[in-house]
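The methods section describes the discrete structure representation at length, but only in general terms. An entry of this sort, consisting of the sequence and the corresponding backbone structure tokens, reads as follows.
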Amino acid sequence: MSWLQGGRAFVYMVAVAVACSACGSSSDSDSDPTCDVDACGRCVADPADACKVDCDGTPGGSAFVDECGACVATEAEACAQDCAGEWGGGAFLDECGACVATEAEACAQDCAGEWGGGAFVDECGACVATEAEACAKDCAGVWGGTSFVDGCGACVADPADACAQDCAGEWGGEAFVDECGACLTDPADACGQDCAGEWGGQAFVDECGACVADPADGCAQDCTGTWGGPAIVDMCGACVADPADACVQDCTGTWGGTAIVDMCGACVTDPADACVQDCAGTWGGDAAVEDGVCKGHLSLEAVASVTAWKTSPAVEGDTLEVNPEGAWNGSHAFVRFDLDAVPAGAVVTSVALRAVAMDGYAWGGDGNVYVHFVSDDTWTPGFDYADQPAFDVDEPLGYWWLWYGSSPGRAVGSTSDPALVPVVQAEVTGDGAVSFVLRCPGYWTSYHSHLAADPADRPALEIDFEVP
């Protein structure tokens, strides 16, 4: 006990003595002669109710001895348990949540700033999380260096210096791909260029010095044994140097045969059977000499014909329509003949124009079909009625009349008017063609055209002539 504490006790004892003396000597009959005065100056009958002196020596004080044996006035001043459970200990929780006794034991931040993290600075000065991420020495011993061991086991710094695989897959091998795409180890096996410049091509120089791709195109020996020679074995089995000398087929199809096509276009095996010229000079003609005069006859088919309608352009078809001129659809029929077959120098003695009809109708009035000369032989289908080739209506070269009642049927219209002769004679010595137009004022008649299936139905021009 300190001096201070001793002094306080002394005062306390004096106070108690005085109090208790007063309490014991009280004349109050109600006073309890056994009561005491406690340290706090209170008169208590039961010592258990007396106030206590705290650890600081203060009667009734609140100071107390903490778990570390120190007298403290408040809980805040009392010692506490550390993270290890020791009262007043120095252990503490570090940044990683671990209980450590010293700062040296506390966790630290890694290079990535993470408390207790495993990241570290590798040999190249980089902060990495794992050893796998850490830089390593290259084959030259340089940390983080780029040198590497190539396929041949050499340490190289530049990839361009590394050895490569050859076409056979061998590192540093000498196999190569030739111009044909083959992988070879011996240059002697590499493909070459053919005569056409193609690598590995099959073209070759034939016996004639030509570069050919297909053996079938190479030159061959001719029948004389000459490479590329022109001599051939003709169809008659002969070897000829000039193909123009080779035998040919005659008109019967026989190779080397003697049959010929005569001047009339017939194939004859005996020249004695070939056609001859008649007296008019026509090959195969039937002109004959009568009374000292060469006379002949020609039957010519029309080479062109059209129907010229009032209401539409002239058309070419199987029929020729001759309609009354006064009808709303009146029409004329134009026909043309070539005169080249008439012998040169011939004198025309008679002419007949014939047309075959298959239908018609008698409207009334003039039913004659009139034939007129047309000087222009250049007409073609498509002209308009108003622009039809000119002819003289007042000078017919002849006419015919056909009667059609209610039943159609074949009928032949014909004229051999002498007026036809000079017209045909002039055209024979002129342009070699003659044209006519057929017209009818009153009746309608339908004729076969130059396109009729049966030649006998086509318009015809019969010519008799003499050759001086």
